[in-house]
Input
Amino acid sequence: MSEEFDFPYAEEFRSDFTGSGGVDQTDRSTNITDETIEEMRSLAARYPEPRSALLPILHLVQSVDGRVSPAGIEAAAEVLGITEAQVSGAATFYTMYKRRPAGQHHIGVCTTALCAIMGGDILMDRVEKKLGVREGQTTPDGKFSLERIECNAACDFAPIMMVNWEFMDNMTPAKADELL
Output
């Protein structure tokens, strides 16, 4: 049996994961210092298995760099004794970790089931128009980032908008305009 296969379309197939949520590798800047590395080691020492400190370390990286940076991924992997792919996998799985530089103010609009029914989608459209960016983007001046957020367990106050992680409940497009 021959090991050769005839795939007439093989040359046409292109795999492209651009914009799929990966960590921005173009911005290699970092604010991670030796003190940050020591804090990572301290976090890892609190757990029976060092890799259990991965999420707290990612929070630390994000607090220092404003996002999960390539340097942060490398440092976390080294401190925890795991691969960069494992760190990156966690950083890109959880929506709480920013993969690109975020704005000074973070705006999140819940559009899951009840919030959407109660006006979350309309609210998202209004905020996008007001800021001049789409979800997942940051305004050119770096002041605002916008994201679609998952349920915040405040359905009785839907729709919910968050500004710098502070709940703004019973939102309307007019309230959003005034707040922004």
Remarks:
- The CA atoms of residues 30 and 71 lie 6 Å apart.
- The helical segments are 34-45, 54-65, 70-80, 84-93, 113-117, 120-131, 173-179.
- The beta strands are 105-110, 144-149, 161-163, 166-168.
